[in-house]
Write a structure and sequence with these properties.
This protein is mainly alpha-helical. It contains 23 helices and no strands. The relative contact order is 0.07. About 2% of the residues have low confidence.
């Protein structure tokens, strides 16, 4: 065990020295960490005990939904690729050493626990909001964050168990997937039946989400039951679910260690694949970085048009048509439509009466859709295109190459916005002008996000789409779009323009700033060396 402890000590020490050798990175970590800590502590300390607290059942429903979402994402991804706590350096140093596999696994779990603590820290701002709005204690808010982070850790362990059992066996994979879908179906039935019996209302939906039956969901429900049993003062319930959680985690670890599958081989395969993908991304070999993706069906070949720089656009059109027969419309479009329409349904119907105007609901849906667009845009075609070396070698003006290579990333928010807000507007019976303004706001933010990624590539040499860079990137985006929002609010307060017209300055500002960034970064594909 001394060798494993030595590896942990060296990893911590080297990480500390690595930050000292890169002062800019250290400053970035301190700034972002300080902002998150400040936001969380301000919310906690400013909580007014005399103020009326929001219904705790709202927090319970949100927490359960968040646990379900993060858990199912990890489990479904892990069914085919597994999960690994190790890097290639761990493999090279530990897997060939005469050390017990159990001790090596303990090392991996300890490393992952550090990630769990870091995740809990970055969720601190949300814990402060929970303390402020739901009148829970700061300790209980921290407990909710730690519970969320620990469940992520448990899900990775459970993923290893499922992967070791089903690896290479399609029948087992289908059986596990069917069980997961069955659990989701049971959750939907457990909520739908009481709501159907008692009538639709927000109170009945929240009561159904707080059903004791949902706390029977393995690991997810147990974590929720343990934490909220503690918050509700029900010690017996909290201890019961805590015991189930500990027993289930111990059983998962025991099953994994006793499984016949050689986890060295499984972990090594996934670690090597992850390492190869990261190297391919660094070197611009995008085709090699997507080795685990499903091969698209090739029906048509050839670009079908294009000459010079706009050939990049036609190439992306052909690739998108192979992924979806509807070109720019795909699963993310459908998901956004479903989320916005469902939100509109909930916000406009409480106890059978409309509680919000159509304009207000449309604006809230726009804000939520823009928030999701931020993450969808980071994985768009433009982020993949800029890493391909031939983009830098084509003898065309760099600004033309920039515009045409990012054209699909600019057009998709426009098409998606039209579909999302026409569907939501028709459901709400909103005015055509409201639908148009919301769709254009969504499209203009697509321009801003694409241009900001370009600016990140120009200044930092990498796309701002992960880790602490994403946090700083979001703060910078707030500064960029703030003037447009401020102008709209000022016109509304001074000239008393219609509320929907507040979006026009935002649209114009976003388009102007996006175009300005493109012009300022026009030599990105001319002067920058990425090969």
């Amino acid at each position: 065990m001394s060798a494993v402890a030595f590896m942990l000590r060296c990893r911590i020490k080297n990480g500390f020295f690595e930050m000292l050798r890169h002062p800019a990175k250290l400053i970035l970590y301190l700034v972002v960490g300080g902002l998150i800590l400040f936001s969380g502590l301000v919310n906690m300390l400013d909580a007014d005990p005399a103020a009326q607290a929001a219904d705790l059942s709202v927090l319970k429903a949100i927490y359960l939904a968040a646990l379900l979402l993060i858990s199912y994402i990890q489990l479904f991804q892990g069914l085919h690729s597994g999960a690994t706590f190790f890097t290639m350096s761990d493999v090279a140093l530990l897997f060939v050493a005469p050390i017990s596999p159990k001790k090596i696994l303990v090392y991996g779990l300890c490393k992952q626990m550090g990630t769990v603590v870091l995740m809990a820290f970055f969720l601190l701002a949300y814990g402060g909001m929970a303390v402020n709005y739901f009148a829970i204690s700061p300790l209980q808010g921290v407990g909710l964050l730690l519970g969320f982070a620990i469940l992520c850790f448990i899900m990775q362990l459970l993923t290893l168990v499922l992967y070791s059992y089903a690896n290479g066996n399609d029948k087992r994979i289908r059986a596990i997937r069917a069980i997961l879908y069955l659990i989701l179906g049971a959750v939907a039935v457990a909520m739908a039946v009481p709501v159907a019996q008692q009538g639709f209302s927000m109170a009945n939906v929240l009561a159904a989400a707080d059903s004791p039956w949902l706390e029977m969901i393995p690991f997810i429900g147990w974590m929720k039951g343990a934490l909220f049993g503690w918050i509700d003062g029900d010690v017996g319930r909290a201890l019961l679910f805590l015991a189930l959680l500990l027993a289930g985690t111990g059983a998962a670890l025991w099953l994994f260690l006793r499984s016949n599958a050689d986890y060295y081989e499984d972990v090594l395969q996934n670690t090597e694949t992850t390492f190869a993908m990261r190297q391919a991304m660094k070197e611009g070999r995008v085709a090699a970085s997507t080795v685990n993706t499903r091969a698209p069906k090739v029906k048509d070949t050839g670009l079908g048009g294009g000459w010079g720089a706009n050939a990049f656009f036609y190439k992306q059109v052909r690739e998108l048509k192979r992924q979806s027969p509807f070109f720019l419309l795909n699963k993310t479009t459908l998901m956004a439509v479903v989320v916005c329409v469902f939100m509109a349904f909930l916000m406009t119907r409480t106890d059978g009466e409309d509680t919000m105007s159509a304009n207000l609901v449309m604006m809230i849906c726009t804000i939520v859709a823009v928030y999701f667009l931020l993450f969808i845009n980071a994985a768009g075609e433009w982020g993949k295109e800029i890493m391909k070396p031939y983009l830098y070698l084509v003898p065309e003006p760099p600004l033309r190459k920039l515009i045409w290579a990012s054209m699909t990333s600019l057009l998709k928010p426009l098409v998606d916005g039209a579909v999302i807000f026409v569907a939501t507007g028709l459901f709400l019976q909103a005015k055509v002008t409201t639908m148009a303004v919301c769709a254009l706001i969504y499209a203009s933010f697509g321009v801003i996000f694409t241009a900001s990624n370009l600016l990140s590539q120009r200044v930092l040499g990498t796309m701002a789409n992960k880790g602490l860079m994403l946090v700083l990137y979001m703060l910078l985006l707030l500064l960029i779009v703030a003037p447009g929002v401020a102008i709209g609010v000022a016109l509304y307060l001074t000239l008393h323009i219609p509320a929907v017209a507040m979006g026009v300055p935002v649209i114009l500002w976003n388009l102007a700033v996006g175009l300005g960034i493109y012009v300022l970064c026009k030599n990105t594909l001319h002067d920058m060396e990425v090969l």
